[in-house]
Amino acid sequence: MTFRRQAQRAAAALLLALGACAPLAPQPPGRAEWYPSPNFDTRRPTLVVLHHTGSDSAAHALGVLTDPAREVSAHYLIARSGKLYQLVDETRRAWHAGVSWWDGSADVNSRSLGIELDNDGTEPFSEPQIATLIELLADLKLRYLIPAANFVGHADVAPRRKADPSRHFPWRRLASLGYGLWCDAPPAADLAFDPEAGLRALGYDTGDVDAAAHAFRLHYRQTDDAADLDETDRALLQCLANQKNSAAAP
Ligand SMILES: [Zn+2]
Fold first, then answer.
1. Which domain holds residue 213?
2. Residue 108: which CATH number?
3. Do 234 and 168 belong to one domain?
4. Which of 85, 184, 203, 250 is in the most buried spot, having the most CB atoms within 10 Å?
5. DSSP conformation letters of 161-183
6. Is 69 contained in some domain?
């Protein structure tokens, strides 16, 4: 191998090693003339994804979420005490959703903010923690104009892999404040209503209908029971899909 080849290989290996943190060039070199305009601002997140950490302490969760070897993070972490930590700038892409899909888009991390609640998945969420979450959501909704339907759980966007936040998460309370959708005891669904189409209309990936249905029941019926969709689910799905449609109408 020539010295030149060796140098090229070493440079390529270095670039590969630095790939995760190297800044992106403003344009692909050689493709376009860089002709900068001053008329821009930062891209805005349009979705909020809520998680529980599955850990016993905020200190442990902070360790995991900042460990380069784990390659996971979130924009915010809220401890059981209600203390709020910010780990990633809101304009940056935190690694919280993983392989995911919502409302027609696979790259959930690129358009969302991730919020972790320190909770082991079997316990109720503490009141100070939820109070801090509500304050944070109010701020985010106001600044980014995020619609109510776009506050979802990790299980909603990754139903094959994830089951957080758990059935203890207060979705109904949050929806009453404008963060997420909710329907209480809706009338029976129309006979022609297709529940799979309803799941898709809400935003779920129906590539695995059973997984999507399980995530739907975890969120909107607050149960881990992985039963098939029943009449109550059909009625809820139609009510929620209508809610989402009417909120999206001009
Ligand atoms: Zn999660």
1. 195-248
2. 3.40.80.10
3. no
4. 203
5. T---S-TTS-HHHHHHTTSS---
6. yes
Determine, yes or no, domain membership for 73: yes
| 53 and 144 part of one domain | yes
Distance 244 CA to ligand 1 centre (A): 24
Of 143, 176, 209, the position where a domain reaches its end is 176
| Span from the CA of 6 to the centroid of ligand 1 (angstroms) | 43
pLDDT by residue, tens only, the chain of 250 residues: 444 555 445 444 444 443 334 455 556 667 888 899 999 999 999 999 999 999 999 999 999 999 999 999 999 999 999 999 999 999 999 999 999 999 999 999 999 999 999 999 999 999 999 999 999 999 999 999 999 999 999 999 999 999 999 999 999 999 999 999 999 988 898 999 999 999 999 999 999 999 999 999 999 999 998 888 999 999 999 999 999 988 775 5
Q: Report how far ligand 1's centroid is from the alpha carbon of 153 (Å).
A: 8
* 47-52, strands of its sheet edge to edge: 84-86, 76-78, 112-117, 47-52, 151-153
Number of domains, the chain: 2
Q: In angstroms, what is the span from residue 124 Cα to ligand 1's centroid?
A: 16
Both 77 and 135 in a single domain? yes
Q: What does pTM read for this prediction?
A: 0.87
